[in-house]
Design brief:
By secondary structure, the protein is of the alpha/beta class. The protein has a single domain, classed as P-loop containing nucleotide triphosphate hydrolases (Rossmann fold), CATH 3.40.50. The protein is built from 9 helices and 9 strands. Strands 4-2-6-1-7-8-9 form a 7-stranded parallel beta sheet, with helices on both faces. Helix 7 links the parallel strand 8 and strand 9.
């Protein structure tokens, strides 16, 4: 895959840290990596955004942020309140295609969940994935309530003819409760796709060198890692 759409079951589920881990492993393999953020919200004009965090953790990558809005809201709402232009899915797809011509891997990290609105016409990250005909990776929360959100996201992808690349848990707790442990088996079932990794909660707080060293252990072989779904599930359910 040269382009991967990174979406989530909601806000603050770990999309940026998952994007960073995938990028870090690819960079370690000598690949040229680019990350696109269609719309950054809730950050002042000169403050660091998600792409800056990915670059800090992953290393030498190309980043491209298409729009920035100060309010921590959905992109279309934030753009309207700020009186700024919205981001169209065609512009996002064009940026990804442009970067794919000179990079081995392009990661497009969305805002919030799959159907968060980017413009007044109701365009979403799903429209970007459809325009690119590229797979979408679901970053999920591990706890109670995640199964419904994951199932809805996966169903929307299927209905729109978008391949679900798999599910990655963005913030696996140090002491998982019963719901989180059971969800290790249930998440891939409701998504109809494999569990392709689990990042420990707080991974972004690690020193970048340590983050890059450990990233491979958090991701499945599909992303160049060593994570094994069966072993991880068994270890946490015993």
């Amino acid at each position: 895959m040269s382009v991967i759409i990174v979406t989530g079951t909601g806000t603050d589920v770990g999309k940026t840290v998952v994007t960073s881990a995938i990028a870090a492993v690819a960079v370690a393999e000598g690949e040229r990596v680019a990350v696109v953020k269609p719309a950054q919200t809730g950050v002042p004009p000169e403050g660091p955004g998600d792409v800056d965090e990915v670059r800090r953790l992953a290393g030498e990558i190309t980043v491209r942020e298409l729009a920035r809005y100060p309010d921590p809201l959905a992109p279309e709402t934030a753009a309207r309140r700020a009186g700024l232009p919205t981001v169209r899915p065609g512009a996002v797809a064009a940026a990804a295609v442009d970067l794919a011509a000179s990079h081995d891997l392009v990661l497009v990290e969305g805002s919030g969940g799959l159907l968060v609105r980017y413009d007044a016409d109701g365009a979403t990250l799903a429209d970007v994935a459809w325009a690119l005909s590229e797979p979408a990776l679901i970053v999920a929360d591990p706890g109670l309530g995640t199964l419904n959100a994951t199932a809805l996201t996966a169903e929307t992808l299927r209905r729109r003819g978008i391949v679900c690349a798999g599910v990655i848990i963005g913030r696996w707790p140090r002491q998982p409760d019963l719901a989180a442990r059971c969800n290790l088996e249930d998440l891939p079932a409701v998504a109809g796709a494999s569990l392709l990794g689990a990042l420990p909660d707080g991974a972004a707080a690690l020193p970048p060198a340590e983050f890059r060293r450990l990233a491979r252990t958090w991701l499945a072989p599909r992303f160049g890692g060593t994570f094994d779904q069966e072993s991880f599930v068994k270890a946490n359910l015993e």
